[in-house]
Amino acid sequence: MRVNNYVLNNHINWTKDLANDPYFRLVFPQPDMLQEPEHVESLINLAKSKVSAAGKAVHVEKLREKLDLNAHPAGQLTENVPMMDGKPVEGVQHKYQATMLIFPSEGQYCHSYCTYCFRWQQFTNVGSQQQFKSDQANDFLNYIKSHKHIKDLLFTGGDPMTMSAEVLGNYLDPILKDPECSHVQTVRIGTKSLAYWPRRFTTDADAKPMLDLFRRVDKSGRNLSIQAHFSHPVELDTPEVAEAIKNIKKTGAVIRTQAPLIKGINDSAATWAEMWNKQTRMGLIPYYMFVERDTGARKFFEVPLARALEIHHEAISECPGTARTLRGPSMSAGPGKIQVLGISSFLGEKVFVLKFLQARNPHWCAPDKLFYAKFDPGAVWLDDLTPAFGEKRWFFEDEYDEMKTRTDGSSGQRLFTS
Ligand SMILES: *Cc1c(COP(=O)(O)O)cnc(C)c1O
Ligand code: SF4
């Protein structure tokens, strides 16, 4: 875990029912995340014991294995890393044709840590082969130059805003200056700094250099899109975040918002309605509502898809069209981002209606590729669903299987050759 004074002083309500305070649960790991009381007990005993730090680490790692935390969901390690000249491009993921992700090695932590984070493996030192990162000398620039259908370049982590403006500039400025990168139209930065440390854009010594870097993106004739992770409306209430948003917008950047729907933290329609309306008032654009991923302490945090649909509907009903830019609830699953569109009945069979928002093969998003799963009120993820109408497999399954079993280094990749 990790938490800072800004979060402790502003976001947690210390005066009432702390154990049920959403923000307390967002940053302080809860005993039930360990699934069984005996796991909690074994850790308490271990902490009290005289076992060396190294010995404790071994025990903790064994417990992690037992909990089956699925560190790299949706094939992110095996299926998303592109190959160039027969080698993997370090620190890059390229799953959807128009958007390339980059994980700078210096940005692999956050200002505080969310208990539900699916990137937790990035922050622990165990098994460095599980870490995923790029460094400034790597091949990502050549990869961008030779893949002209990349339109969005998304810096992610961890949180890229933990890097200095100088370090981020070392990644970004070469792209902005290179005429062979003119196909990149949007630079995105995925960050929770507006919620966890808005001083990054106000009083920090490095605030001005960072805002200057944002201006350089605008000057290069591109748009900068801050993909801001906001989990709860309290994050929007401080004078610091209001000022940070104003400063960012003055650079020409836009701010889009996204978050997962998490039990005990934001699983109510009122919370999302308040969040989307406040964001819209502040000039932020609601973008994605995600379903909790199948990783980490998922049993503790998961919300059934049917409930997610209800929350989404009730919340969006309280919003004007200007806030209905939001898409979701969406599962970031192996084959793609799958939106749960709704519930319907055909010839007496109750079904979930599903649609790809993004897919490994762009054709899976086609208008005739809506697909249907048997309705199941307890289902929380794609794996829990079965095709409706007696179908044996999902329409995309054979092709996805074929992608995964390729041994020529193009596993999971489609149509990305030039
Ligand atoms: C969500 C996601 C993206 C971005 O998708 P957009 O729909 O362009 O916002 C890109 N790559 C991966 C692997 C993702 O999960
Ligand atoms: S801010 Fe994002 S990457 Fe960082 S801990 Fe939270 S969910 Fe994980």
Summarize the structure.
The chain is 31% helix and 18% strand.
What does the model show?
Helices cover 31% and strands 18% of the residues. It is built from 14 helices and 13 strands. The strands form 2 sheets. It has an 11-stranded mixed sheet. Strands 1-2 form a two-stranded antiparallel ribbon. It is globular, with a radius of gyration of 22 Å. Bound molecules: pyridoxal-5'-phosphate (PLP) and iron/sulfur cluster. The site of iron/sulfur cluster (SF4) has 9 residues, from loops. InterPro entries: Aldolase_TIM, Lys_aminomutase/Glu_NH3_mut, rSAM, rSAM_sf.
Q: Percent helix among the residues?
A: 25-40%
Distance between the termini: 42 Å
Q: Which regions have little confidence, pLDDT < 50, spanning 5+ residues?
A: 126-131
Query: How much strand?
Result: 15-25%
Bound molecules: pyridoxal-5'-phosphate, iron/sulfur cluster
Order of helices and strands: HHHHEEEEHHEHEHHEHEHEHHEEEEH
Pfam families: Fer4_12
Protein name: Lysine 2,3-aminomutase
Cofactor: pyridoxal 5'-phosphate
Keywords: 4Fe-4S, Iron, Iron-sulfur, Metal-binding, Pyridoxal phosphate, S-adenosyl-L-methionine
